[in-house]
Amino acid sequence: AQKITQTQPGMFVQEKEAVTLDCTYDTSDPSYGLFWYKQPSSGEMIFLIYQGSYDQQNATEGRYSLNFQKARKSANLVISASQLGDSAMYFCAMRENTGNQFYFGTGTSLTVIP
Amino acid sequence: DAGVIQSPRHEVTEMGQEVTLRCKPISGHNSLFWYRQTMMRGLELLIYFNNNVPIDDSGMPEDRFSAKMPNASFSTLKIQPSEPRDSAVYFCASSLWQWGPTDTQYFGPGTRLTVL
C-alpha cells in the first residue's frame, strides 16, 4: 500500500483565492511527522510546513496551513491568497518514528491563474 | 547559512562512462539521503546514511550504483557504467536526526544527469 497518496495530479486556482491540496497517508506507527514541499519549475525542493502526529493544533506558516485530520489520516495543505509564484509541484511526505526514511507522494501540480 | 551543496549541477555523458555526483550536507546534520527524480517514476529514495553509515540502500537500482560517505561533510553517488535510463535529476538531502520538527529534510539543488 502507498504510504502517501496525492490524488490531484493537477489543480488550478485563481490568483488571490485559497486552494487545498489533498494528502492522505497510511501508517500504523502512532508517532509520525508530515511534511509539505514545493518544487517550482527551477527544480529545487523547498520545505514548507511540518505537522507532528501529536500536535494538537494545525500547523501554520504564513500563507500555508495544514488541515490535519488524524482520524481520517489526511494532511491537506491550504494555501491562502494564492500568488502567481505559488505555481509549482507540491509534494506531501511522511516520516515514521520507526525509521529515518521519508515517504513522498506523487505530487500535485498547482497553476495559479491571473 | 549554506544549504546542501551538490556538484555538478549538470552532467552530460556518454553511455558506458563513469559518473560521480557529489554532495556536501548542511553542517551539523547527521543524516544524508540520495534521491532520483524522473517523470515516469517520480521521486525515489536511493540510499540514506545516518552518522556516515549506510542504513538502507534497497532503492539503489543495481550494482552499477554505489554511494559512499567517508565523513560527515561529504558524500558521493557513483554510476558505473552509466546507461541512458539513468538520465534523471539526482537530489541530495540532509537532516538532523532527532525526532521532531528539526528532522526536516533539506534538499540540494540537484544534479541533472543526461546519459547519451
- Helical percent range of chain A? under 10%
Tell me the overall shape of chain B: globular
Largest sheet of chain B: 7 strands, mixed
Mean pLDDT of chain A: 94
Low-confidence stretches of chain A: none
Count of runs of 4 or more consecutive helical residues of chain A: 0
Cα Rg of chain B: 14 Å
Oligomer: heterodimer
Count all strands of chain A and give the number.
12
Uncertain segments of chain B: none
Largest interface: A-B, 22 and 25 residues
List keywords for this structure.
heterodimer; A: about 110 residues; mainly beta; six-stranded mixed beta sheet; B: about 120 residues; seven-stranded mixed beta sheet; 11 strands
How would you summarize what this structure contains?
The complex is a heterodimer of chains A (114) and B (116). Chain A is an all-beta fold and 114 residues long. Helix content of chain A is 0%, strand content 52%.
Describe the structure.
The complex is a heterodimer of chains A (114) and B (116). Chain A is mostly beta strands and 114 residues long. Chain A has strands at residues 4-5, 10-14, 19-21, 24-25, 32-39, 46-52, 60-61, 64-69, 74-79, 88-96, 102-104, 108-113. Chain A is 0% helix and 52% strand. In chain A, strands 2, 5, 6, 10, 11 and 12 form a six-stranded mixed beta sheet that branches. Chain A has a four-stranded antiparallel beta sheet with strand order 3-9-8-7, with no helix packed on it. Chain A is globular, with a radius of gyration of 14 Å. Chain A starts with a strand and ends with a strand. In chain A, 35% of the residues are buried. Chain B has 116 residues and is mostly beta strands. In chain B, strands 2, 4, 5, 6, 9, 10 and 11 form a seven-stranded mixed beta sheet that branches. Chain B has a four-stranded antiparallel beta sheet with strand order 1-3-8-7, with no helix packed on it. Chain B is globular and about 40 Å long. The relative contact order of chain B is 0.33. The model of chain B has no long low-confidence stretch (mean pLDDT 93). The A-B interface holds A 31, 33, 35, 37, 43-47, 50, 52, 91, 93, 95, 97, 99-102, 104, 106-107 and B 31, 33, 42-43, 45, 48, 50, 55-56, 89, 91, 93, 95, 97, 99-101, 103-107, 109-110, 112.
